[in-house]
Amino acid sequence: MTSAAPAATGPSARPHSTGRYVGLRLLQMVPTLLLILVTAFLLLKLAPGDAAQVLAGDSGGGDAAYIATLRQRFGLDQPIAIQLLLYARNVLTGELGFSFRNNMPVAELIAARVVPTLLLTGLALLVAVLLGVAGGVTAALTRGRLADRLIGAIALLLYATPGFLLGIGLMILFGVVLLWLPTGGYADANGAAEGWAHAGSVARHLVLPVVTLGMLYAAIYSRFTRSAMIEIYAQDYIRTARAKGLAPARIAWRHGVRNALLPLVTIIGLQAGSLLSGAIVVETVFAWPGLGRLAFEAVQQRDYNLLSGLVLCTGALVVITNLIVDLLYATLDPRVRLR
Amino acid sequence: MNAAPVLSVRDLKVGVRSARGEVDAVRGLDLDVARGETLALVGESGCGKSLTALALAGLLPDGARIRSGTIVLGGVSIEGLPERRLRRLRGQRVGMVFQDPMAALNPVLTIGEQIVEAIRAHRSVSRAQARSEAESLLARVRLREGAQLLQAFPHQLSGGMRQRILIAIAIANRPDVLIADEPTTALDATVQAEILALLDELRRDSGMALVLITHDLGLVSRWADRVAVMYAGRAVETRSAATLADAAHPYTRALLAARPRRRPLRGPRPRLAEISGRVPLPGEAISGCAFADRCAAMTALCRRQAPETQRLGDAGVACHHPFAPRREVALP
To answer: Among A4, A243, A332, whose Cβ lies nearest the Cβ of B108?
Structure first.
């Protein structure tokens, strides 16, 4: 850094680039989404047999001429590149194919499951960040003392426990022994409650899955926050903050946590995919009607149409999450500029 | 000194935890700083000057602590003060400027936020009022377009500008003492003089005392009223900066002789004088005078007994065999 050119990159350089940053980031999503599309398409192609055979089989078998007609109708006789384009066109118009196992269009199946999964993973992420940051900060500030060791031990225990085991354990304790919370499902089955009653029922069903999924990530985030905070506390600007005579809590929050959020947000973005696959286990354990369980069933039933639709959908979710994380990062760190 | 000193340090010992247990890096330092004066604290790397600065501001890092001695600031001894009261001293009575301005500002907060929080940590003024104060502080450290600058982030500014902002933060609450620990070491040579001139001007205008910590003897005669030369954790010589050339302690003389000189118009550049031997490490057992091993004037007495500080004119010198004024420098 030179002291010679302070005026050139003046403070006014920032606001102009924010809009461009968002635009470029959106543009950069396109190749990733295309790649996901191709992957979903190849998954369909790699599956044994094709839609025509399945349809023919469904209608009690058919001769070769009938199958050929079907192929022609669905464009399956075209070269693979054309098929990819046809597939892309279908996807863009929201047409994801038909799930013969569920006897429903794939798009409808997924649409019904998106909200529960977003509810579960979103809340789990919130719990993980709140607990993880609180635990990590406490551990860093009490470094080497009892609280630090205790938090470290709990985090290690949680991290080492398989998700399904933690889920079943919590289910037995709170759902079976104590009878505080429902053991599974999305809402109470008896009587279709409306409005707040329904929301309350969903909320009670959410507690255990959210805690189960959130705890694992809380453990990861707490270790991460701890080491980030320790690193930050060795920085000169923390000494400046102390020299100002600020209260320790203010130093920890405004100068410590505020800076520790930067690496933490990066990690959260990287783990978006892992959070969704973690949801598969938790949704299965708690019979939660989300995308994860749908994917699990699709694999079991070899429902390739559904599976490729799910790949597309979760892939898009991860890309969108990363976009949000990038924008968040740019808001948190004034130094970030797109090159 | 006639008036009561604003900062007075007696027999300060700062212990540092190391592999060999706790060792003293500052081993009995005495200092007095009068209101409105500039004291230069000079010494080689490892002589304990930075630790002294941190101890004075109550900012010692983990593993270092004041082992003994007294620090009296504006008539109040900070010994045994609860952390709450110490915090009120920091930033209000004592301001501190550090060596590396590039790292000393929080990268994710605006300049305005960082100045305002320093003001509001000690005075209950409104945010708007603190902001306008921050703007006039920027003017006081000779930064233009303050209103715009308050919105800026540190990475958008040069090192010299950042050091000015850190000075603005340090003087935000009109401290009695400003401690500047090598404030220009990390800056370009041209910026160095500007920053020192700024510190000098602020001191003159506000009447605060300035403790300028440096390893550069060349700065002393121009910017300081008095100088304290530190060696192995003690002040071996304290005197008026104007009479520095008449230094009485052999170590001060050797430091003066080791300064780089201008190249002569004709002939080869003279070889830099050096002080043979090395500084005792913190915690290294010292019997007698700490400088004895490197001193040309060393006698058996120096080995046996640590010298007390004696008065020689306006100076305090801790040496058994001080130079008389106007004697030639003799080096081993």
So the answer is: A332
Tell me the per-residue pLDDT of A163-182, one tens digit each, with 9 for 90 and over. Answer: 888 888 888 888 788 888 88
pLDDT confidence of residue A195? 73
Please give the distance of CA A271 from its chain centroid, rounded to a whole number.
7
> From the centroid of its chain, how far is CA B316?
18
Report how far Cα A262 is from the mean position of its chain's Cα atoms. Answer: 19
- pLDDT one-digit tens code per residue, B194-236: 999 999 999 999 999 999 999 888 888 889 999 999 998 888 9
The verdict on a CB contact (< 8 Å) between A244 and B91 is yes
Q: Which residue has the tokens 């003159």?
A: B204
pLDDT, mean of residues B22-31 = 88
**Chain B CB contacts of A4 below 8 Å:** 158
Q: Could you tell me how many helices (H) and strands (E) chain A has, helices first?
A: 14, 2
> Mutate which of A148, A231, A240 to disrupt the B interface (most B C-beta within 10 Å)?
A240
Percent of chain B whose pLDDT exceeds 70: 95
What distance in Å separates the CA atoms of residue A131 and residue A144, rounded to the nearest whole number?
20
Predicted complex: ipTM over 0.85: yes
A58-67, A125-134, A301-310: least confident range: A58-67
Residues A271, A132 contacting (CB under 8 angstroms): no
Can you give the pTM of this predicted structure? 0.82
Q: How far is CA B111 from CA A232, A336, B149, in A?
A: 19, 17, 7
b vs e for A127-144, b when ≥16 Cβ sit within 10 Å of the residue's Cβ? bbbebbbbbbbbbbbeee
CA dihedral (B30, B33, B38, B40) in degrees, to 10, reads 10
